[in-house]
Amino acid sequence: MNSDLSHQAPSQKPAATPAHIRAAHERIAPHIRRTPLIETPSPIAGAPPVSLKLECIQHTGSFKARGAFHNLLTRPAPPSGCACASGGNHGAAVAYAAGKLGVRARIFVPEIASAAKVAKIRTYGAEPVIGGATYAEAQERCDAYVAETGALLIHPYDAPETIAGAGTVALEWEEDLGRLDLPRLDIVLVAVGGGGLISGLAAWFAGRVRVVGVEPEGSRALHAAFEAGAPVDVAVSSIAADSLGARRVGDLNFDICRRFVSEVALVPDDAIAAAQRRLWTEASIVAEPGGAAAFAALACAAWRPAKAERVGVLVCGANADLATFAQLFE
After folding, report:
1. What is the pLDDT of residues 116-154, one digit of tens each?
2. Which residues constitute the domain of residue 300?
3. Is the pLDDT reported for residue 23 higher than 70?
4. pTM over cut 0.85
5. How many other C-beta atoms can be found within 10 angstroms of the C-beta atom of residue 305?
6. Looking at residue 44, what DSSP letter applies?
7. How far is 162 from 320, CA to CA, in rounded Å?
8. What's the number of domains the chain is made of?
């Protein structure tokens, strides 16, 4: 299902611009991986190859390390350290960045967070605080802790520093296409949770490349916001809920998306699982459900490009629970 969207741009300046994103990349480049691009055959017969940007092999297994480092490199943390709420990927990234930069970190995760992601948080030296059935409830607990201790809040999506950090994915993607003498992209497909990643990419491309959001049918915060004309609360139920399970898209993120995101495709959970299998069998890529969602939209025809359009797909996360991943092939 597609929501084809046309929005009048608000008058205020967006929270992140290409200049902000370039400055963010200069700050975080020593601390992150410049993840590779690969070309893979399109699931659509006769279509050009698809460009995959493999943020699934970024530090901590997702793009989130970019925003975590950018926050900590631009906003000094007090003695109480930093804190965040997360379905797992953002928490692991904040724990990793904080450990590398010598900052204390406390990570609040909901009960739906996968064991693999909670284990990563511990591995990077932070103790996760598990509680609440959903990400939104974990965020409430985190906000209370920040109010009590003065710790630096690192929001997973609705913050300028997080958005600019995420946007560095698009900067690298565009630069590396040129360096490798590959054709420029017409469209990028990006999975959406709270909107940090897609708003970062959209802010960088700023209409030069068409940006399409992809959400699970059971977790559609951006799709609902476009329908309502503003962020609204949605119910969350999806195999990708631990990474794409935001109850409400961020205000800053929505402001950028309404300018520069052309549409949102919705994909069922079985298509996400099928995309995980396909990425592994055809490209040896381990993707968690949220990391496979964007590819799922193309593979299951929930969204289709014009015949000659050059498509890029962001594989944004690899933190799959291995037992669950193995069950996909039984």
Report:
1. 888 899 999 998 999 988 888 999 999 999 999 999 999
2. 2-63+160-327
3. yes
4. yes
5. 19
6. S
7. 23
8. 2
